[in-house]
Specification:
The protein is α/β, with parallel strands linked by helices. The chain is built from ten helices and 15 strands.
Length: 317
């Protein structure tokens, strides 16, 4: 881990551009052999400061059941949970067709590459044959602990009389995010984990089984705008990670002219992405306590070379 103070971080428009891709990257800033990207912003002083957010003794799980969304999205199979007994007193169970990124999860740096330029840091290689680099186990060994800040887009739009729909592509812009944060009186600090809530898991559950089955074949979901302005805004805020409750962080199916937010953030900027977190109880607690900041503790699974991991995340007030 490197120690990066706020003043040492260049502005987004100062970062170099990959010529033929035309996108900016942080590889030289963090170092080509770096495994953590913006998680480097979670320095010992940032973590120590974040611990002071836990003042109420209230713990909120941020994890959906691993069986949700149901049916699974993006062509994944449903997880099979089998029970069996060793003897008359001892039971065990087994999971089959379990996708670490099928429910509440972190996208790791081996999840998306920047075309021919490689994964984060310009790393090449075949993820299936070489597990020594950029695996989710790198994050698992240090954990993800920091100050979380909630941008409750779902509640904001509900109050404005323009609620989001779970099966319509809606692009959440940086202007909207800034408006939500301002309305909440929320300040983002260097190293914060930005948590964007839409209320999508509850919206998805309210859809008919037929509609959910159709979305599995033709996905259409709300999410962040995939254009460069979103990458610029997030980088310049110095957030250590972005957490959402939507299936793909960015809106789906997206527009090729906007580009891929996954590509902009994971392999190029080194900004970890959380998807499908369960944020409804978090929203309720924030409104009840009249605050939007809290401690986040997440323990990714120590899966050598893994492309992602279940979130295993808690918010603590």
């Amino acid at each position: 881990m490197h120690q990066f103070s706020p003043g040492a971080v260049p502005e987004y428009d100062e970062l170099p551009v990959l010529d033929t891709l035309g996108m900016r990257h942080s590889w030289d800033f963090f170092g080509r052999d770096d495994q953590y990207g913006t998680l480097n912003f979670l320095t010992s002083s940032v973590i120590t400061s974040a611990l002071s957010e836990a003042t109420e003794g209230v713990v909120v799980s941020l994890n959906l059941p691993i069986t949700e969304p149901s049916p699974p999205l993006f062509g994944r199979e449903p997880t099979t949970h089998t029970f069996f007994t060793h003897d008359r007193n001892t039971w065990d169970d087994r999971l089959d067709a379990y996708f670490p990124q099928g429910s509440s999860q972190w996208d790791g740096f081996r999840h998306v590459r920047a075309r021919e330029f490689g994964f984060f840091g310009g790393q090449g290689g075949d993820p299936a044959t070489d597990k020594s680099w950029l695996g989710i186990d790198q994050w698992a060994r240090r954990g993800i602990v920091g100050r979380g800040v909630l941008a409750d887009v779902g509640h904001f739009l509900q109050e404005a009389g323009a609620p989001l729909q779970g099966d319509i592509e809606t692009k959440i812009t940086t202007e909207l995010l800034s408006e939500v944060l301002e309305a909440q009186g929320t300040e983002i600090r260097h190293g914060d984990l930005l948590v964007v809530r839409t209320g999508w898991p509850t919206l998805y559950r309210s859809l008919s089984g037929e509609r959910r089955a159709m979305l599995n074949k033709l996905p259409c979901f709300p999410g962040l705008f995939a254009g460069e302005q979103t990458a610029r805004w997030l980088w310049n805020l110095h957030v250590s990670a972005l957490i959402t409750d939507v299936p793909a962080v960015e809106s789906v199916p997206g527009n090729p002219q906007d580009g891929s937010l996954h590509r902009r953030l994971l392999p190029l900027l080194g900004l970890p992405l959380g998807e499908l977190f369960d944020l409804d109880e978090l929203s309720t607690q924030c409104r009840g306590l009249r605050r939007s900041n809290f401690l986040i503790v997440s323990a990714p699974v120590n899966l050598p070379g893994g492309c992602g991991s279940p979130s295993n995340a808690l918010a603590i007030f």
